[in-house]
Structure prediction request, 228 residues.
Amino acid sequence: MQFLYVKSCGEHTLTIDGEAFAHLCQSRRAKVGSTQALRNLHDDTLYTYRIESISRKSATLLLESSQILPNTPQHFSHLIWAMTTPQTIYKALPHLNELGLGKLSLYFGRFSQGGARLDEGRIERILIESCQQCGRSSLYQVEMLDDFHSALECYPRASVLDFGGEVLQTRAQAISALKEGVFIGAEGGFSTQEREAFAAQNRKIYGVDSTLILRSQSAAMAMLAKGI
Prediction:
């Protein structure tokens, strides 16, 4: 773990309890007098606190120093991903975080799984845990769009990852495409009607240099990895 997330860190004196206390003082067995790295994932600042005291269910920490030390992706990247199962999305979130995703837009496509909804609190907890592990200093944005047509309207410059598309040859191409947003289909890809809508708007279609069929989450991660 690269740091501990505490929402209110930045204050001179902190009292931590609950999950943060359990992790710091029970799992990591931190002692009085030791220093700990904390972030609030809002201001790109790395805070150093010293543990002043530990009781049975809480600990008091005093601020020793702070340093503006952003650890963020070099380039903005945006995926516009058709909903698969919630469990698939939850499992992919930390991987996308480690690969430097800037924004994730989710929409219900033709092959999306019913009307399943995601738990926003769970999404935030997963991303916080991932940031603590990989050292990233801010959370990426996750938004829910109503449907395919809403996604088209919101992101008119976005391209598409689909079978038979142009293979991205360079990292610069991938970075440019990801900056504007890339559509990723659900399991089964895109429907005929969705492909026709892309064609009618002259959307750029990209593909991967492989004869293997990728699952939806594999396609999302493969596209994002192209821009690292």
Remarks:
- Residues 120-134 form the longest helix (15 residues).
